Amino acid sequence: MKRAILLLVCYVLCPSPFCLQAAQPPNVVLIVSDDQGYHDLGTLLPELKTPTLDRLANEGVRLSSFYVAWPACTPSRAAFLTGRYPQRNGIYDMIRNEAPDYGYKYKPSEYEVTFERIGGMDTREVILPAYLRQEGYTSGIFGKWDLGSLQRFLPLQKGFDDFYGLVNTGIDFYTHQRYGVPSMYRNNKLTEEDEGTYCTWLFEREALRFLDEHHEKPFFLYLPFNAPHGASGLEPHVRSGTQAPKEYRDMYPLDGPRFEPGAIAKYSPTSPYAGKGKRKTRAARLQEYRGCVTAMDKAIGSVLDFLDEKNLSENTIVIFFSDNGGSGGANNGPLRGHKGDTWEGGIRVPCLVRWPGVIPAGTVTDEFLTSLELLPTLAAACGFTVPAKTKLDGYDMLPVLQGKAESPRKEMFWKRKESLGGRVGDWKYVRMGGKEFLFDLSKDVGEKNNLSKSNPEQFEKTKAAFAAWLEEMDAAEPRGPFRDF
Fold this sequence. Notes:
By secondary structure, the protein is an alpha/beta fold. The protein folds into 2 domains: about 25-410, Alkaline Phosphatase, subunit A; about 410-485, Arylsulfatase, C-terminal domain, CATH 3.30.1120. It is about 30% helix and about 20% strand. The protein has helices at about 1-15, 15-25, 50-60, 75-80, 85-90, 110, 115-120, 130-135, 200-215, 235-240, 245-250, 280-310, 345, 375-380, 400, 455-475, and strands at about 25-35, 60-65, 65, 140-145, 160-165, 175-180, 180, 185, 190, 220-225, 260, 280, 315-320, 350-355, 365, 370, 410-415, 420-425, 425-430, 435-440. The strands form 5 sheets. A 10-stranded mixed beta sheet has the order 9-8-5-4-10-1-13-14-2-15. A 4-stranded antiparallel beta sheet has the order 17-18-19-20, with helices on one face.
């Protein structure tokens, strides 16, 4: 209704097609990589070839103090799609099975009743595309969903209009299987139609199809790659790294042999792969990782080229970030830790935002911001409303990205089982491996100098803030699939 009134006023005052186009709400392209390192942008690491991401940095703003809400994929994705902490929306741990980590392949009848198959986001939670639908947006997701694979949990039941991708945490990039189980879906149905094709190219293809079909009206394109996440195969030579097409892998010289004897460390002595076969060397993992990132960058470039060809770039918000800290061949420098940690390396990620004419080009902000800001920011930009009873945990960050305001974000907290983290201003509380730490991030972004003993007052204050947050989360209206209610 608001947009109809705006269009009517625009037509009366200036009935030209240009004016009507300007009155359209902005399109949104949200691109999420998987396990990409904090330092893994060509603009920061020249040996890494990411011309498209470098272009986004040059045409928009790079966020150097941007955090996700959890140090691994499933809760992180649920958080930015709902605008709510993982502990509030109910997805505060992984929806996955552990047995394949030890070389066990599920039989189909077994897999059907495992948690990876039956778990999913609470059906009461509302996510971004459902809100955008209120304003007439068409929404498509092409890539990694990871919020449940039963039909009631799939994207079309959560507000998306089009879906092609994997439903769980990872797959083999070519077979599209997760530990031998087919895992690619088109809308609500399992499909093996494209088996053998590198999945990044499939997500690129589907994104371009969606744009071609829907670019004349407001659209939300969600492109959550599984790149450069490790390949989910049982065989050590597959699972010991990610996968890249040879053309992209060969862009990076391999220093040494590709494979070495042995199995993945987690394999149990009873696994058929224990102590057998071959796995990728560290040098090969780095080469494969970088080739995978560059292939993803090429796919993103195709999307930006389409926007340019259709004169859509000026009215499209493009957002890019990684779902959590890097792993495998990732470079998280100068941060400590990696995926899975509540150190900075597990939760602070690369982020780029472009909106020509609205966000100054070629800028960098070190303001404290998080992925929880995504939904409130798009609510303000696209005009949708969130019911007052729905508690959001983020803020509209557009004024910050424009350089017009300081971030309203003053604190952020993380809990992954017994690993804890809390940032209050520049102070960071961490509990990892049963030990507690305090850091001053304004002077020590690498978290090298533990100040918990030398500054006990600040340590207790920051720790108390974490405890207060945890109490608030425990008191929130309970959501599944983990809580007992």
